[in-house]
Amino acid sequence: MENETCNLRKIGGPGRKPRACAECKKQKMKCEVPSGGHKCRNCWKRGTDCVFDRLVVPHAANNGRPHPAANPECNCGHNLTLIREDIRQIQASLDVLAGQKMLQAEPTSHHESPPNATIAAGEALSAREFNLRMAMTRENSPEANGNTEHNGSSVTVEEPMGSLYEVTRLRNIRSNKAKTVRPATERGQVQDLISRGVIPLSEAESLYTSFHTSLNHYLWVGLEQTHPDFKSVRESSELLTATILTVTALHIPTSAETFDKCYKEFLLLISSSMFSRYHSVDDVRALCIAAFWLSEVSWKLSGHAIRIATELNIHRSFSRAMEGDREHFLRARLWYMLYVCDKHFSIAYGRPPMIAESLQIRDHELFLQSPFADALDRRILSQVSLMQILTRIYDRFIEGSKGLTQENTTSAMLADEEGDFDDLRAFNGEIDRWRLLWHARQEHNPFIGSFPPKGIILYCYFAKLQLNSLAIRGVSLSSGQLSTQRKEYVNLAISAAASILTFVLEEEDMRRALVGTPLYVHTMITFASAFLMKCATMWSRVMGLYIEAGYITSLLERVVSLLKTSVTSDRHVLYHIAFGLEKMLAKFNTNSGVTIAQGSRQAALRTGISGGDNGQFAQRFPTDGNHVAFSNAEWGAYTGPVDAGAPSFSDEFSGNLLFEAFGSGSANDVYDLLTSQLSY
Hints:
disordered N terminus; zinc ion binding; 2 strands; transcription; 55% helix; 1% strand; two-stranded antiparallel ribbon; mainly alpha; XnlR_reg_dom; 30 helices; 680 residues
């Protein structure tokens, strides 16, 4: 075989053989090639390439040694190795090209290779490497099951983007939702932060186990129903893997360094996904999970998840789910989860939502009749039902309000008219009925205890605070005493705010769940704290709301203490909430002249919500609005005389203090919520 390879060099090809190389022709020198050599003598001496027609003979190797082929002795074994390597590379390239042709010719395939996915055999690309350049590529062939109309068939009319695709055939504007799924990862080809060595597999598995037994249940993720183990998660979605590890590391005190590594990878994947057309349902699930817990990016991730979900037609899975399709049932459940996520932030921030009130949302009770529905769905749908009520409240009082704007906050959102207060009373009744209905449907959870039924009570307080605080929103401080009706609902808001804090402080399962609950819970606890502080400083005597500042102080001190003990990392938003509230409370105590001895504070606690001889909450915060628990003398003992010309704490509370406490770092979203809710 080696002799045959050597003899191949003596056999001339078709046509006239070149007499001289390009360099010798240029120099007009005689070109002589030694027997068995690849270079002429002149090129060999100069160390240049010896080019005969289309044949290029490489020059000497790195250290100046002549190429083996330039040796008069024929190194046939080396040549044979080169030939075999060339054949192997050609075969690998042909295999890749053949695979791409098969994917393009497959008319019923639900997966499509991205236009820039031409990779060498045995290699796999990470999801973040797909979108490095713009690829205006055309489809090679029309869809086999396209919209071609035949005799007897119905007329089909494409949506506008579909018509644009029909004309241009550009992949990147295709509107066929079934083709926007990333190709499934081949066995053994997982590319993620673990395979790249960012964190070890053992640590990743430990984080996944922690997520599976705690956070997974606070957020109704139901990951165990879609993936039996961590390996399945990794094979399904690199983004879901990074999200789970990032969110879990955030909640573990010893994983601060791991969180930083995972969060960096997570952001890279998110950045890549913004411009990718290849997504999976688990990518949407990952974005939703991240939005509920990662405060700095929550609003952006919520919108991104909804856009991808609509590309994948997840919003149209409800009808198929009602027909008994389990896969579409899980997709419809995910759409409910996205709806709740969207409403949590849109209502809290006072921003318009992205998801409309579709048939699936309006008829959510039908979803519970599915044979696949379980306790997880009853928890999700309880949120859906409550968000529907809050949406109607938003549409009635906030969206339709013309008086209260950023430029003009002196017009009351609710007029002193029977219509507004009648609607307010009706909405309070709706929230009470919601609590009765959904509390009875909740079950004890083996991982998070009594949080599901008690969470209904907590969210009821949240809704009552958001609703009844509208009664004071926009009311001018110079307007004097509030009307009897308005005072009734302001006192209901005060009662709800104090109930939120007390409920979290006194219920063991709520205290344990505090750090793991989604961002919405943390923001509402912050809102309740700031609302009570604002009531005690800005509106109390001016508007006839006589609140015991000492009780508010002791309650908030307990809340700050609980938040500090619950904090797992300085990256967690609770750390910044505790710091911000403590700073505000110190300013509140200094400027309000509140100096309460330890014994007075204990007395306040004994006569407050915690119980005691006369410890009913209604005695301290009456709910009818017509009677108050504290006299002017009692309130004056805490506040002291007011100098009308001196700067007050209330002036700073409106802007500067909120910004100092929450206006930077991971608590920036909390600041946005407070400024939107406390713009009174």
